[in-house]
């Protein structure tokens, strides 16, 4: 589950980088929002690509074959695994 590992890393590196207490007491607008927006957008894009891969596999009756592929969208690389 590469997506879960990646999301956990983003949580540690960005969301909770200053600790949970900071996060609960801070305004999440302004600079925090501006820095988070591209990260959220990239994660949603990756999720859409992963969903498309999964749906294509289902449509082609390959979902149970374990077939995995790498995909690229511009400079973004979606690693093997769903």
From TrEMBL:
GO molecular function: endonuclease activity; hydrolase activity, acting on ester bonds; metal ion binding; nucleic acid binding
Keywords: Disulfide bond, Endonuclease, Glycoprotein, Hydrolase, Metal-binding, Nuclease
One BP term from GO: DNA catabolic process
Entries under SUPFAM superfamilies matching the protein: Phospholipase C/P1 nuclease
Listed Gene3D superfamilies: P1 Nuclease (1.10.575.10)
Record keyword Nuclease present: yes
Record-stated family: Belongs to the nuclease type I family.
Name the UniProt record assigns to this protein: Uncharacterized protein
Naturally occurring in which organism (per UniProt): Penicillium daleae
């Amino acid at each position: 589950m590469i997506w879960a590992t990646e999301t956990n890393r983003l949580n540690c590196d960005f969301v909770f980088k200053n600790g949970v207490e900071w996060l609960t007491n801070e305004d999440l607008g302004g600079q925090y929002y501006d820095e988070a927006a591209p990260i959220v957008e990239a994660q949603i894009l990756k999720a859409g690509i992963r969903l498309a891969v999964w749906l294509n596999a289902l449509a082609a009756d390959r979902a149970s074959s374990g077939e995995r592929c790498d995909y690229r969208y511009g400079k973004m690389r979606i690693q093997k695994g769903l």
